Amino acid sequence: MRRIRSFISYFIIVVGTLVISKFVVNITIYSTRYKMDDDLQYRHHLLNLRVRSVARRLANDLHRVRNVLNEKDYLDTVILVIACNRFEALKEHLESLKNSNLNRSIKMTSYIFSLQGPKIPIIVSLDCNDDAVRDIILNAGPNITLIENPNQSLFNLTKQEKKYEGYYRIARHYHFALDYVFSILGYQSAIITEDDLLLAPDFLEYMLANKNLLFEDPTIWCISAWNDNGKKELIVKNNSLLHRTDFFPGLGWMLTSQLWEELRVKWPKTFWDDWMRDPAQRQGRACVRPEISRTGISLRGKKGVSKGLYYEKHLKHIIVNTDFYHFSQSDLSYLKKDYYDPAFRKIVLGAVPATLDEILRGRFSNGTILPENVRLFYVASVDFKAFAKRFGVMDDFRSGICRTCYHGVVSFRYGQHRVFLTPKEIQNI
């Protein structure tokens, strides 16, 4: 009996121990599980908060993208390429355009949103009935459309006019192409390029960021990507710097349908760009231009109706910007006349007068070093031409307006100084 009781007691102790151990283990497991559940819930909660935060930031960024580059920008703006018979030039130009279209991006609070795929439609207008060039355009991609001027009739020109026939063709071609994109297709603004132009990486960024100025300031009638005096030794090393100019630069420019309605009825038969510079057309309006050009002339630009006029001496030396600048993130309202003119007057009149010899030496006659901004006066065009040639600035006038000038003032860099070549009547600004 005693053995049986001992065995039963032992059995009860063993079983009790096992039950208690299992109970303790279960409690530990459940406790650990609850802790893990709490930890998982906490982590899940943190993850939700992060996801919601990222989602909010994404939503804000996407909203900003839509505001800055909404669908309307692509519906009302077109790139119009004027082309003739320069096969290789057009091929390179279209590649440059497509890359510029693809590479545009906007930096937001946390991310870079790349605008994948060409967004702005490209229309290439062909005038020379060149099969090889036509094939390039037709095979260039889905975003590129070919139009052709149906009017290929001969001009009734005098013997004297005959040598300028190429310019007659160009003026007629421009009228056809501009009228097509505005009057037939209904675009509100157009960026005009030519087949021999080189494009900066931020060419389209520059154009679209400045577009609103055309609609908001009636004193601005074009946005140009070109600086006639954009040689390396003449420019300030600031790729964000923009100016107003009374001279129509062309060579990569933008206009509105409203301006075209004004011009189309009186479009000239030849030399359309010089016609644009005439006071009757300009009507006191200005263009916006960059300090560092967003376009350049390719080597193939020597082949054309101008037969390389100015190319060797000036055009091939124009520097094209290489570092992308986000103009869309800048406040460009300073280019509006009401803001620009007072600031322009202040900086010009604040520049210290100096003579040609003093500027060339970098010192005043008393030996004092010249300040950063200096002013050199000219009285007549003959003075301007003499000074311009000395500094390597373009010296020609069109309809009484010198290249890049604003209120008769041409600014450029000479060594460490910024020179304002200024008419005596500058005080009238």
TrEMBL record:
Example of a GO biological process term: protein N-linked glycosylation
Superkingdom per UniProt: Eukaryota
Keywords for this protein: Glycosyltransferase, Golgi apparatus, Manganese, Membrane, Metal-binding, Signal-anchor, Transferase, Transmembrane, Transmembrane helix
Cofactor(s) for this UniProt protein: Mn(2+)
Primary localization: Golgi
Molecular function terms, GO-annotated: alpha-1,3-mannosylglycoprotein 2-beta-N-acetylglucosaminyltransferase activity; manganese ion binding
Matches recorded under Pfam families: GNT-I (PF03071)
CDD domains (UniProt xref): GT13_GLCNAC-TI (cd02514)
Transmembrane segments: 7-25
Pathway: Protein modification; protein glycosylation
EC number of this enzyme: 2.4.1.101
Cofactor: record remark: The cofactor is mostly bound to the substrate.
Compartments where found: Golgi apparatus membrane
InterPro entries for this protein: Glyco_trans_13 (IPR004139), Glycosyltransferase_13 (IPR052261), Nucleotide-diphossugar_trans (IPR029044)
UniProt KW Transmembrane keyword: yes
Assigned protein family: Belongs to the glycosyltransferase 13 family.
Function: Initiates complex N-linked carbohydrate formation. Essential for the conversion of high-mannose to hybrid and complex N-glycans.
Protein's recorded name: Alpha-1,3-mannosyl-glycoprotein 2-beta-N-acetylglucosaminyltransferase
Organism listed in the record: Brugia timori
